[in-house]
Specification:
With 371 residues, the chain is of the alpha/beta class. Helices cover 37% and strands 20% of the residues. Strand 10 and strand 11 form a beta hairpin. The longest helix is centred in the middle third of the chain and has 15 residues.
Length: 371
């Protein structure tokens, strides 16, 4: 099997870093035969810029892509708990359709739904909903920052794509109420419960198994958010991300590492000035390389380990052709792990082979789902 090509660029300009990374790997995709391209930024928070995809990263992608692809481009996101249009407004995305003809903004939370299956915390099948636009796009591009995470250690391109695809009706608000959405200080249910009852706890309390169990019970019983229902405990969320990877994985992954987040990611962590960009048409190679550079080897990140075990991509450096202007060891920068890091490393399931096979059978993948 040929090594997966991964671009690794370091430089003093965010926009230029992404252009240079795309120049090295982006033309592995046959753009002439694409009809429905989705660009998926990360708005897990609509009010914390460090947690979100910077608009200049998306501009770099659009400027690189337009000479190669003339069809429609949907910039789609489904924010976690507040209205997605608030994120489009706060982060400077609203002008992009005027700047780039054929570009459309889409709130994936308001999209038509496709039923998919995951597992509940007792490993029974559970039906959730994802945005039809994501399933039917013939080229999915994930672009976002590298961050630590409070449940699965790191969040990179695969998790960005999957979690944003899941429907949250808690976050919906009609577009005509955008002005109210951007000015309102009313907290969402997640904000009240998460920040009020969890986020302000001392780190040592967060790392206690009973606290993680209580968090799982709260999230997994959500009636309005399938993003929250993915959280069926640390072992099962890793299995669930793997279960949805064959259907929803990015065809092009871009990690904008101009500035990452360490510690209490994915929203409350601290900035890491890194000045790198990673890109690959192998989502697992992009994510595994970035995680390794952050100080988290493949064996520690359950859902990436499962993807590698199932042959969904390259997960080890020796399986990659790393191209660019810098060697991995020169930009290796251990990120401070999340408070629950030790607990999160306990993601292994008994009889894992059985559950991996079950997961692969849950959601049939269209035969033409390739880039």
């Amino acid at each position: 099997m040929a090594a997966s090509k991964v671009a690794l660029i370091q430089g003093d300009d965010r926009y230029r870093n992404i252009i240079r990374a795309l120049d090295l790997v982006g033309d592995e995709i046959d753009w002439a035969n694409k009809e429905r391209v989705l660009v998926k930024p990360n708005f897990v928070s609509t009010r914390e810029p460090l947690s979100a995809t910077h608009v200049e990263a998306v501009r770099a992608l659009l400027d690189w892509l337009r000479p190669r692809y003339e069809g429609p481009i949907i910039i789609g996101e489904g924010a976690a708990s507040r209205n997605t249009w608030e994120g489009f407004a706060n982060y400077g995305y609203l002008t992009l359709p005027d700047e780039y003809p054929g570009v459309e903004l889409c709130d994936l939370n308001a999209d038509e739904q496709v039923a998919v299956r995951i597992f509940d915390r007792r490993l029974r099948p559970l039906t959730v909903r994802v945005a039809r636009t994501v399933v039917e796009s013939d080229c999915r591009i994930a672009i976002g920052p590298p961050k630590t995470h409070d449940t699965v250690i790191v969040t990179l391109s695969l998790k960005n794509m999957i979690m944003g695809s899941l429907i949250s009706r808690l976050a919906l608000r009609p577009p005509e109420l955008l002005s109210a959405a951007t000015s309102s200080d009313a907290p969402s249910p997640f904000t009240l419960a998460g920040r009020g009852l969890y986020a302000n706890l001392p780190d040592w309390v967060k790392s206690l198994p009973p606290v993680e169990w209580a968090k799982t019970i709260y999230l997994s019983n959500s009636r309005g958010s399938d993003k929250q229902r993915m959280h069926q405990g640390i072992p099962v969320i890793n299995l669930n991300l793997f279960a949805l990877a064959p259907l929803l994985h990015p065809h092009l992954s871009i990690i904008d590492g101009w500035e990452g987040m360490e510690g209490e990611g994915p929203t409350q962590g601290d900035a890491v000035p890194w000045r790198i960009a990673v890109a690959s048409t192998d989502f697992l190679a992009a994510d595994a390389l970035t995680a390794e550079l952050m100080g988290f080897p493949l064996e520690e990140v359950g859902y990436l380990h499962y993807c590698h075990q199932a042959g969904l991509g390259a997960g080890r450096l020796e399986e990659m052709e790393i191209v660019g202007n810098v060697k991995p060891e020169a930009v290796r920068r251990p990120f401070r792990p999340p408070p629950t890091y030790r607990l999160q490393k306990r993601w292994q399931l008994p009889d894992a082979e059985r559950w991996l096979q079950e997961a692969l059978s849950l959601n049939p993948v269209p035969e033409d789902d390739h880039a």
